[in-house]
Write a structure and sequence with these properties.
The protein is an alpha/beta fold. It has a single domain (about 5-205), classed as Rossmann fold. The chain has nine helices and five strands. A five-stranded parallel β-sheet has the order 2-3-1-4-5, with helices on one face. Helix 1 (about 15-25) packs across helix 9, helix 2 (about 35-45) packs across helix 5 (about 85-100) and helix 7 crosses helix 8 (about 145-170). The radius of gyration is 17 Å and the shape is globular.
């Protein structure tokens, strides 16, 4: 059984690129937006519709029902819940299927650290950086001016925080909820991926020594 590495990240920290580079270093499968396609296949819902609601919290109070369905593998097609909740359930079921395969994976976002909290080999990572450095990164990536990039960063962080807090009942970005917190602002995506990789190797070494 291999490790599952989950990566939560602030906007503008290159979390997706860090995940890709870590996948290359470890040989683990990489999951991000492709989870929507897998969720659509599993649920029978439209991929285009699900993309519209990706990582957006529902305005309903049905998240406990969604979490219950995800936990016990119940069908949800007949449950009268918003698309947001159906997507969360579908993605949660896909995440658990990935973990059950035991072959290792790097997963960005999707509350994976909480969904897979009972998985015995889970490394939960949170990536952060100085606000202005994140603004610089978004300006370069999105072609926005500084004010537009600042607004983008704040709105994206707020969306991710709302989504995570709503579906998990935990606090997004709270350091004690993660095994490793990395500042990617100075070391970049490649540096951050290397730090996670070395941390993962140390975990494996410690585990082997305890056997």
């Amino acid at each position: 059984m291999e490790y599952i590495v989950t990566i939560a990240r602030q906007s503008g920290t290159n979390g997706r690129e860090i995940g890709r580079k870590l996948s290359e270093l470890t040989g683990f499968r990489f999951y991000d937006n492709n989870l929507i396609k897998l969720a659509a296949e599993k649920s029978g819902m439209s991929e285009e519709v699900l993309e519209e609601f990706d990582e957006k919290a529902s305005s309903s109070l049905l998240y406990t029902l969604a979490l219950s369905a995800a936990s016990y593998g119940h069908g949800y097609a007949n449950v009268n819940m918003p698309i947001n909740d159906k997507l969360f359930v579908a993605q949660s079921n896909v995440l658990k299927s990935i973990a059950e395969e035991g072959s290792g994976a790097v997963i960005v976002g999707r509350c994976a650290d909480c969904v897979l909290s009972e998985y015995p080999k889970l490394l939960r990572v949170f990536v952060m950086a100085d606000f202005e450095k994140r603004v610089d990164a978004v300006m370069a990536r999105e072609g926005l001016d500084r004010n537009g990039a600042r607004d983008y960063v704040m709105k994206t962080d707020k969306k991710r925080s709302s989504y995570y807090n709503y579906y998990t009942g935990e606090k997004w970005g709270r350091t004690e909820n993660y095994d490793l917190v990395i500042n990617s602002g100075d070391i970049g995506a490649a540096g951050a991926a290397s730090v996670i990789f070395e941390f993962l190797k140390q975990l494996k070494t410690k585990q082997e020594a305890e056997v």
